Amino acid sequence: MPIRPDAGGRSTVYGMRGAVACEHPQAALAGIRVLEEGGNAVDACVAMAATLAVVAPMTTGMGGDAFLLFYEAKSGRVVGACGAGGAPRGIDAQKLRDMGLSRMPDRGALTVTVPGAVRLWEDAARELGRLPLGRLLENALRYAREGCIVAEVVGRYWETAGELLRKDEAAARCFLPGGRVPRAGQRFLQPDLARTLEVLCEGGADAFYEGEIARRIARSVREAGGFLSEGDLAEHQTEWVEPISTDYRGVRVYEIPPPTQGIAALEMLGILEGFELAELDPLGAGRVHLEVEAKKLAFRDLRERVGDPDFCEVPVERMLSKEYAAGLREEISRERAAGVSRELSLGSDTTYLCAVDEEGNGCSFINSLYKGFGSGIVAGGTGVCLQNRGACFTLEEGHPNELAPGKRPLHTIIPALATREGALWAVFGVMGGPMQPQGHAQLLADLLDYGMSPQEAADHPRHFHDGETLLLEGRYPERTVEELRRMGHAVEVGPDYAVPTGGAQVIRILEGGVRACGSDPRKDGCALAQ
After folding, report:
1. How do the pLDDT tens digits run along the chain, 530 residues long?
2. What whole-number distance in Å separates Cα of residue 506 and Cα of residue 417?
3. Is the alpha carbon torsion for 201, 203, 208, 213 positive or negative?
4. Which of the residues 51, 238, 350, 382 is marked catalytic?
5. Is 350 tagged catalytic?
6. How far is Cα 325 from Cα 320, in angstroms, rounded to an integer?
7. CB 283 within 8 A of CB 449
8. Residue 462 falls within a domain, yes or no?
9. In a 3-state reduction of DSSP, which class is residue 125?
10. Does the CA dihedral 44-47-49-51 come out positive or negative?
11. How many domains does the chain have?
12. Residue environment code for 157-184, b if the CB has 16+ CB neighbours within 10 A, otherwise e
């Protein structure tokens, strides 16, 4: 693959100290400022996530969930934190079936689960960071109070949400100033959210999960026909988890365990490791076909076996074994596409960000409302848009992911982290619903099998398989499209940079400790390094 300057586009960003990558320049600046003030990688990520909740409100926010992976340089340990809220205690699948529903709705009050992000922000800063939560929220507070300028990609996402936002009075008041969707380049203020951030700066996460903010959140959901209570909010806690991992080409890749789809990313890598991808054209049908077929097998397991491990047994060890991967690999034909059974219904909006600090600590962080503007419900007077993560549950009786009180749904959002011989190798992620495991596998193949730089890997054409359709970005050669169709794939050719193929952010640690950073051109953001 050609590299800059002849190919045009973005360059890989290099540095020797701190580095950040995310989907919005103002959030990246917030992360760098925190590093300059003595914060570490976790502090930088919390500051970026909070800022993104203001400047990219359709993808993320305090009303959503969050996860992180952290590499501690001095010990070499990798820890995970799960900020996934459960379903309200007053709701279950039978109650919804009795209401005449056969599947979870996509939006509205019945899809609201407990938001876990704010508790995770505070716990991460206290347990792993160096700076208090109040300091990490300062940039977000300033943009909410004084206004932020709507970025181009953010503006395009906003345009698609006008009808949803008009259904909720508080949402329309917050996100449709003057009754219209804000345009790129327009200044946008969020006074209600600014007041909520001020309360959090003073009272911490407890001020979100108890007291007036919690009362407003619960009341807004109940008035819209949902079941969330103040007790549900008060009971929520961050879960510290042991990451799951697998080896791929000499690199140890870490993901958050179930109930996330991180296990599907690792399954895909286990299957693909048995093929010599490096011998295949990086833009050729042979490579795309193998990645898609590996995805089908991994998502079959995801659909049939994965749910909240507090409620069902997930055979993680077996699913990640090399022997199991070898058996799945035998199901793949090199010449023909396999059929697809019933697919998961998973949304596409989230935000991913990452940081490495001067000491070599690394943080991979993801925060989401699920689909754009989540449930479409804003808690009156708070500016907090509530997620629709409950849409990921099934109402199928006996299924591992069946809706139950306090249960966490199958989660799309997954941060990733990799080490080599115990040293940090990369923090990375590819945001975007069911694209995320596919994106993790494709990005790692670009980096490891094809030797691309971080920015080349972020730029590289990607493909997205969903249901029976295989979407290829328009930069794939016509011969690749034709060959995939001959193999039986239902190919759809999209624009050169297609939204469903997600948004990648990556920081690699090179020889001598050099930080090499890439940020996806499909988003508004950038990578910055000291």
Report:
1. 445 556 678 899 999 999 999 999 999 999 999 999 999 999 999 999 999 999 999 999 999 999 999 999 999 999 999 999 999 999 999 999 999 999 999 999 999 999 999 999 999 999 999 999 999 999 999 999 999 999 999 999 999 999 999 999 999 999 999 999 999 999 999 999 999 999 999 999 999 999 999 999 999 999 999 999 999 999 999 999 999 999 999 999 999 999 999 999 999 999 999 999 999 999 999 999 999 999 999 999 999 999 999 999 999 999 999 999 999 999 999 999 998 755 555 445 578 999 999 999 999 999 999 999 999 999 999 999 999 999 999 999 999 999 999 999 999 999 999 999 999 999 999 988 899 999 999 999 999 999 999 999 999 999 999 988 999 999 999 999 999 999 999 999 999 999 999 999 999 999 999 999 999 999 999 999 99
2. 10
3. negative
4. 350
5. yes
6. 7
7. no
8. no
9. helix
10. negative
11. 1
12. bbeebeebbeebebbbbbbbeeeebbee
- Listed in sequence order, the residues at least 6 apart from 302 whose beta carbon sits closer than 8 Å to its beta carbon are 261, 263, 264, 344, 410
pTM (2 d.p.): 0.96
Sign, CA dihedral 166-368-265-321, equals: negative
Beta-carbon contacts of residue 384 (< 8 Å; ≥ 6 apart) = 61, 62, 63, 115, 193, 196, 213, 217, 378
Question: Which of 416, 413, 396 is CA-nearest to residue 312?
Answer: 396
Whether 141 is covered by a domain: the verdict is yes
Q: Say which DSSP state 449 is in.
A: I
The phi, psi pair for 219, rounded to 5°, reads: -65, -40
Neighbours of 18 (CB within 10 A): 25
Token readout for 166 is 């008009």
Report the DSSP beta bridge partners of residue 58. Answer: none
* Integer Cα distance of 214 and 234 in angstroms: 8
Q: Which two tokens stand for residue 6?
A: 């002849």
* 99 located within any domain: yes
Owning domain of residue 25: 13-240+348-392
Q: Which residues contact 521 (CB under 8 A, 6 or more apart)?
A: 9, 10, 458, 459, 497
Asked if residue 177 belongs to a domain, the reply is yes
For residue 279, give every residue at least 6 positions away whose Cβ sits within 8 Å of its Cβ, in sequence order, or none: none
Residue 477, token pair as written in the block:
């050669």
How many Å apart are CA 283 and CA 239, to the nearest integer? Answer: 40
